[in-house]
Batch of 2 targets.
Target 1
Amino acid sequence: MDKLALVTLVYAGAKFAAYCLWCRRGLERFGRNWNLNRATFGLGAFRLLLGIVLGLIIARLFAAPIIDGLQHTWPALAYVIVFVPIRWIEWSIMLAIITKSARGFISLEPGSMAWRIGGIAVSCAVDAVLFAGVSFFNIQPGRIFC
């Protein structure tokens, strides 16, 4: 297995585990009538898939100029500008699914906002796994964040 494949596999595994744990927290706080164990893994997998699909579509269509323009001079700024808003949308979708209500998507209640911000923090923290692997193995991963 080459270095990029190994780092990507570890990254995807870490993302899945983190997403399962954060979705479980959301289920415990906001969910009703869910089988916790089944829903935890199902929602974690859905969140990973959602990140891949939305991340690729949005990053490719709208964010590529921002990333290309800032990635060499201000890479952290490019990361925040692109990925934080995308993740807000992704975690809002997850909240709507967990609450079984479209209101979950637009809710500005402190608890739901805190959960979404926590989800963004979880997503960004797990990206540190990728950053560490890339740095350690001195490889270029491309755009594989989700």
Target 2
Amino acid sequence: MGRRQPCGKTHARGEGETGDAEHAGEITAPPLLAPPRQGMPFQKRAGQKLKCEISSTIGKRTGCKTSRPLLVRPLRAMLQIIAIAFFAAVIFALSSIQTRQLMRRFLERACTGKKWRQRFPDASNSEIREFLDIFVDAFGFKQSWRLQFTPEDRVLDVYRALYPVRNTADGMEMESLVIDLQKRYHVDIVSSWREDITLADLFTQTRRPVA
């Protein structure tokens, strides 16, 4: 039989071994994992980022912290141009309809070319057309309306048909007509102007030889 060790030493060694084991356990135990990061998971954050990028591209306002949209200014400018063009087209169409209604009694006539040739047999068709083109351009009419006016039409009657309400702001049609005729034919229209002046009177003055 082997030598029996004293109980006290055996007990002391047991306590020492236990203490060493506990001490060794404190040293060798793996460190605790860091607490999970607060916030949304990675996949959810990636999806939210993609949504923010799409919203920023199309100019949609969101709570995302993103850079200034790249397409919002060109898109907004394009929409403004389209809106302005649309309203301008509507206004032009309404104005054309109104002008046609005001000038109905002239536009319902047949072609007046025969009356012009009878009144001025020595004038060529090109001379008559050129004079009437100046007239309709001054009043803002279509050139296709030039042969809707007769030599006996008074200029003031055409003006009053276009502006039936007195003291209405106009487009300075009368002034434009005088200026254009004087510029083209080098004649003094102002000195011979009167309220009952007709298109035939104006055309006669344009056919006078230039001094």
